[in-house]
């Protein structure tokens, strides 16, 4: 069991998301970086969709009350272990992409750094034990269900581990975390041709800045307004994470995991599924560009990801946990 001693504003319990519910108006949610969460679970011998902690805004300080193995993937956030008096432990630095053993009575500290891109996933052997809600353990912050009472973590919370689900298998050699590159590959959206010629060029050529009013619902992008030649109102249509909508002010919004399921703004482009994980690191102040690809290219990139996971899953585990 972990006890939350200190916590940033948006640390939540997430898994791979709540799928197959969009026709009911229920958002996907889930980890913004599903690659990182799957890597953490693979390291720990968990099921791919085991619940993890998603740390969007450090700091995070947890007291561990039982021995367990953990894995951190994403930004390292200066993660390290402390003793019960909050003194750093020798060799207590926690390198991302590896399994680390934590003993009961130790403290896990993620102080974080003040720069764009702070994002980490923290997995524990067995996964965090919260109830399934509509097939997922993910926190839906907008509708206030899932995870831990449908809200971010706060000081005093207790997080339980599903020890019965611990397979005892670990990848002790580690996995190299994949670094985002600030570039998202995308295809033209359904309303792409409704925009004027300059806007159709600008969406690909502009280096967009992520605005302060960004969150898990969507990233507001600044710099250059985009203009549609169709000034009428369009009917609400289906949207997905990765869709870039352009509201009436012309500044695009890149929809995230917690976005609504329908929207009435034109969809100029859509980020391919293989690159959605990079959005996790696009915190306010970050810069991003869109690269146009074809549907055939998107499918080929998806196959490359499938091959990547197949290779990782073939790595033999170390056996029983220490």
Give a brief description:
With about 325 residues, this protein is an alpha+beta fold.
Describe the fold and architecture.
This protein is an alpha+beta fold. It has three helices and 20 strands. The strands form four sheets. It has a seven-stranded mixed β-barrel. Strands 7-6-9-4-1-11 form a six-stranded antiparallel beta sheet, with no helix packed on it. The model has no long low-confidence stretch (mean pLDDT 93).
What structural category do the secondary elements indicate? alpha+beta
DSSP strand content: 25-35%
For the biggest sheet, the summary is: 7 strands, mixed, barrel
Gyration radius over CA: 20 Å
Average residue pLDDT: 93
How would you write the strand order of the largest sheet?
12-19-16-17-14-13-20
Low-confidence stretches: none
Q: What would the principal axes of the Cα set say about the shape?
A: elongated
Q: Which bin fits the share of residues in helices?
A: 10-25%
List how many beta strands DSSP finds: 20
Name the helix and strand elements from N-terminus to C-terminus, one letter apiece.
EEHEEEEEEEEEEHEEEEEEEEH
Number of helices: 3
């Amino acid at each position: 069991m972990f006890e939350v001693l200190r916590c940033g504003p948006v640390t939540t319990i997430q898994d791979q998301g709540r799928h197959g519910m969009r026709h009911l108006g229920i958002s996907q949610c889930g980890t913004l970086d599903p690659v990182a969460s799957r890597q953490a679970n693979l390291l720990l011998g968990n099921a791919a969709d085991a619940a993890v902690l998603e740390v969007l805004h450090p700091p995070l300080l947890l007291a561990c009350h039982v021995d367990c193995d953990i894995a951190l993937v994403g930004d390292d956030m200066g993660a390290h272990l402390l003793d019960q008096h909050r003194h750093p432990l020798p060799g207590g630095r926690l390198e991302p992409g590896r399994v680390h053993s934590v003993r009961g009575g130790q403290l896990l500290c993620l102080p974080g750094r003040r720069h764009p891109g702070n994002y980490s996933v923290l997995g524990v052997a067995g996964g965090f034990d919260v109830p399934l809600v509509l097939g997922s353990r993910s926190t839906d912050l907008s509708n206030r269900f899932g995870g831990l009472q449908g809200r971010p973590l706060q000081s005093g919370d207790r997080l339980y581990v599903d020890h019965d689900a611990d397979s005892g298998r670990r990848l002790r050699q580690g996995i190299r975390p994949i670094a985002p590159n600030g570039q998202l590959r995308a295809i033209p959206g359904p309303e792409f041709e409704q925009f004027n010629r300059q806007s159709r060029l600008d969406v690909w050529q502009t280096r967009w800045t992520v605005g302060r009013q960004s969150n898990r619902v969507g990233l507001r992008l600044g710099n250059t307004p985009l203009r549609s030649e169709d000034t009428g109102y369009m009917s609400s249509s289906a949207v997905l994470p990765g869709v870039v909508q352009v509201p009436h002010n012309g500044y695009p919004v890149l929809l995230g995991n917690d976005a609504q399921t329908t929207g009435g703004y034109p969809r100029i482009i859509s980020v391919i599924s293989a690159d959605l994980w990079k959005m996790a690191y696009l915190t306010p102040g970050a810069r991003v560009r869109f690269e146009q690809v074809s549907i055939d290219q998107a499918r080929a990139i998806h196959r490359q990801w499938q091959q990547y996971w197949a290779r990782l899953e073939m790595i033999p585990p170390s056996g029983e946990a220490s």
